[in-house]
Amino acid sequence: MPTIAPAVQQQLDERRGTDAQVLLWIIAKNRDTGAPETIGFWTGDDHQEFLIGGEIRTYFGAGNVIDVPPIIAKTGFQVRHYRVSLPPLTDEVKTLIRQFEPRQAKVEIHSCPLDIDSGNPLAEPVRMFKGLLNEAPEELGRKGGESRTELVLVTSARSLTLGLPLKRSSAELQRRNPADRGREIVDTAGEWRGRWG
């Protein structure tokens, strides 16, 4: 359970209301260089810098057009999927989709509590989600219709579902058990021709 900063707790105790913004941070590979690149979006109106983990990050303002579902925080190994909608025609979203390789990009979602009077951050944003970007389909609407880019996110628990590569090699299986011939012909089986009829 995250620790609540004293300034945030004081605002909650006043019962005048709360204001929290959602920060979306993506680390993806550049398609040309292969180097990791970062880009951030938040639900505010203008670009802003936030201090997270001792690092100053710049987030591009996308306003209320970012649609982020409620994040479920539970213990366990269940792989959760979330769908985050972004506006498709902004330059920053075009950069994410066309210049970066979005598939399997690392994603973090933070919640940033703001002062309801000044609009300034009350404390360092709290991470609510850490995972991977699984898909990024673009939906272009008809003339006058809505268009959007939907990011399909999966939690980090997904890495626990991947099979071990040691179980895919015939040599590795025979090293453990010399009589195991289960994957002996897997490399050439697709090239065999069978007679039919």
How is this structure best described in words?
With 197 residues, the protein is mainly beta. It has one domain (6-158). The chain is 13% helix and 37% strand. It has three helices and nine strands; from the N terminus they run H-E-E-E-E-E-H-E-E-E-E-H. It has helices spanning 6-14, 91-99, 170-176; strands at residues 19-30, 36-42, 48-52, 55-61, 81-86, 100-114, 126-135, 138-139, 148-155. Strands 1, 2, 3, 4, 5, 6, 7, 8 and 9 form a nine-stranded mixed beta sheet that branches. The chain is elongated, with a radius of gyration of 23 Å. The mean pLDDT is 81.
Concise synopsis of the structure shown:
With 197 residues, the chain is mainly beta. It has one domain (6-158). 13% of the residues lie in helices and 37% in strands.
Order of helices and strands: HEEEEEHEEEEH
Portion of residues in beta strands equals 35-45%
Q: How many DSSP-defined strands?
A: 9
Count of discrete domains: 1
Structural class: mainly beta
**pLDDT average, as an integer?**
81
**Uncertain stretches of 5 or more adjacent residues:** none
**C-alpha-based Rg, rounded:** 23 Å
Outline the biggest β-sheet: 9 strands, mixed
Tell me the span between the first and last alpha carbons.
Answer: 66 Å
Helical content band = 10-25%
How many H/I helical runs?
3
Shape: elongated
Annotation keywords:
single chain, about 200 residues, mainly beta, 9-stranded mixed beta sheet, 3 helices, about 15% helix
